[in-house]
Amino acid sequence: MSQLSPASERETLTVAVTDPAAASGWLDHPPRMGFFTDTTICIGCKSCEVACKEWNAVPEDGLNLTGMSFDNSISLGADTWRHVAFIERRDEAGDFRWLMSSDVCKHCTEAACLDVCPTGSLMHTEFGTVVVQEDICNGCGYCVSACPFGVIGRRTDDGRAHKCTLCYDRLGDGLEPACAKACPTQSIQFGPLDELRERADARLAQLHEAGVDEARLYGRDPGSGVGGTGAMFLLLDEPEVYGLPPDPVVTTRHLPAMWRAAAMAAATLAACVTAAFLGGRRHP
Amino acid sequence: MNISPVTRQGLKDVRPGREALPGAKRPSRSRPPGQGRQPRATPGGELRPNSYYGLPVLNKPVWEPREIAGYFFLGGLAGASSLVALGAELTGRPQLARGAKLGAAGAISLSMVALVKDLGRPARFLNMMRVFKPTSPMSVGTWIVSAYAPAALAAAACDVTGRFPAAGRIAAGGAALLGPGVASYTAVLLSNTAVPAWHEARAVMPFLFVSSAASAAAGLGLITAAGQETGPVSRLAVAGAAGELVAGELMLRGMDPVVRRGYDHGRARVLLTASKAIAVAGAAGAVAGAVTGSRAIRVAAGVALLAASACTRFGVFHAGITSADDPEATVGPQRARLAARAGGSQPAAPAAHAPARQPASGPASPLKSTSWGDSTSIPGHRQSGTSIPLSRKRDGGESS
To answer: Using CA atoms, how far apart are residues B390 and B400, in angstroms rounded to an integer?
Structure first.
């Protein structure tokens, strides 16, 4: 009875998903769109945060001065859909590095938030992105606990769950998302996911050749615990340094085993109660 | 004069943009090669995974403890009571049957009020019935409870009024059929999240929850039934309490110690310890009550069993909240998993992503990560912002 199942153990209630839009029932859908965030050229300007808030009318999430370098938005949530992380590093040899990364919803291929949503509010769009249908969401909050990246949140005033929509309204008009549009260095790159994956691989190779060995891709691998993400990142250190989980696994992978355990437990309960009534002397 | 950088040979002196190579002019590592990334060492010498300013990776569950842990207790009580009610009815124990049916009806009614109240948009509770999704325990549970509640209410109503006894019996049968489902699905609901303390307990939690439900239902039976009818629930009390203790132990066995911290510290520890003690007292009281025939002892035992069941549910709930707030509980086991997959030679090697990261034509050296120390390790750097109302309580008061 292993407590930790390896992520490679694949037991799902759905077939392996390579095309989330098709798996969700979209016929003749456009190519899957996503983000490639190249943090090596991020300058920490936070235009992405501002543009996202302006376009989506995301409420103010606290006017803080945190002292966490320049990071005053702290983490993703219902009122923060783009979050720029800043990590100042100095090693023993005295070399200084300033890591900056714009975090966003990963738009997972196998999205835990979508799987656990009991109203069907969370859905995959025709672009393969994950959005909350705000007219359906009743704010049960299950998605908040299910997301392995800590992305989605529930607004206290309005009661519903909110997260990055990958500017679904802009995509429908052939525009790119607000954050990608605003990014001055093209650190946030938007496009068909296939093309972005090629671009990411090429960029990684270029960096490795230049000797930047610590560069790595995050979310690129379709065999990962969430089936690969629609938002990939090129990081310069371990994911947990940026506040990202190193090996996230969608909880649905283990659900069939959980249902079996519950069925056994239910049967055990029925058996025990039966035995309790049959066990003693028959009541006259 | 034309100062445009455009020439016949292409763009001249234009900043490299996407092709920029930050850090490439300097050697990327000023330490000897072969020294990979090291996790932070605590003063005690144990290695701890890195984090982003000690902030949690996950978002904190938004569920209200009183409403959701309270529902787990009431739902379990209801489901198991429906089983007791049917058994009592079939074996000629009318007072036990009535108490169990009324208890189930009352508990499930309160449950539904609590569940609807916990929604962010309570008026939209019926939206749960738009879909039936096996990947969502909440969806499955909504449908189970929607079928169970009318049955439990009908069974109680028929019993109390004496009308439609046949229909009442069918309703009691239906409630007993669905009752175990009501008592067990809530464990799947908790385990099917990213919360480490809940997810890692997934193999045994259903058994803990049904044991807890059984002892709660037994407790209710001891309180409401006449002495000569309480034989079965006295036995069930012992079985339920024993199950709670054993399942509680097994659930934590083999759990990663960092994840287990959620259960072993703070409010969860208080509640779970209390639960075990009170459950033992309740089971002992059930036996003593059966032996001596004292109603006072039986009722006290019943109250104890109900309290123990509630403490178990609230304890497990709070353990999850604590572990969700702890970045190490999220990162530690994942890092261990990656290390195990990589064969353990490089504890921090991100082997799962290696195929995509190994450049096709790049240097043959394996991917190394530079250890730059913890993000809070800069001398004089403020560890936390004073203006953030974050729940960054760390168990044991360990410092970053």
So the answer is: 15
